């Protein structure tokens, strides 16, 4: 009989606790969504104003202070130095002289004519040997 009461008490406990657990989970979810929307809106606002969501760490602040103290301020003499203007006509002119390796019909004919007009070295040597006879003998 004791087991029945234990089971019954456990069932009543679950019956009463279940709605409380569901309500707690619902409140947690609503709170989470609200925080998400708020943080998103804040992030968008800070992004467009040029700031970040997180503040600078103490190390970052110290590094900025050190960098600012080490920067060299330009002297007024350098700032007032006259600037030389470059004459735009003195700039180099580049011209594309690349010859494309494409052959046209006219060029091929001229090349063939020039080859036929000038004898090659071998032919001229042969002609000289024929005219001079056998000099080796």
Furnish the topology, listing elements before pairings.
Blueprint: H1 2-49, H2 58-70, H3 76-79, H4 105-117, H5 121-132
Strand residue content: under 5%
Low-confidence stretches: none
SS element count, helices: 5
Number of strands: 0
Basic shape: elongated
> From the alpha-carbon coordinates, what is the Rg to the nearest angstrom?
48 Å
The pLDDT mean sits at 76
Major beta sheet summary: none
| N-to-C CA distance | 143 Å
Structural class: mainly alpha
Instruction: Please provide the ordered H/E string of secondary-structure elements.
Output: HHHHH
Helix content: 55-70%
Key words describing this protein structure:
137 residues; mainly alpha; 5 helices; elongated
Give a verbal description of the structure.
This protein has 137 residues and is mostly helical. It has a domain at 1-58. It has helices at residues 2-49, 58-70, 76-79, 105-117, 121-132. The chain is elongated and about 145 Å long.
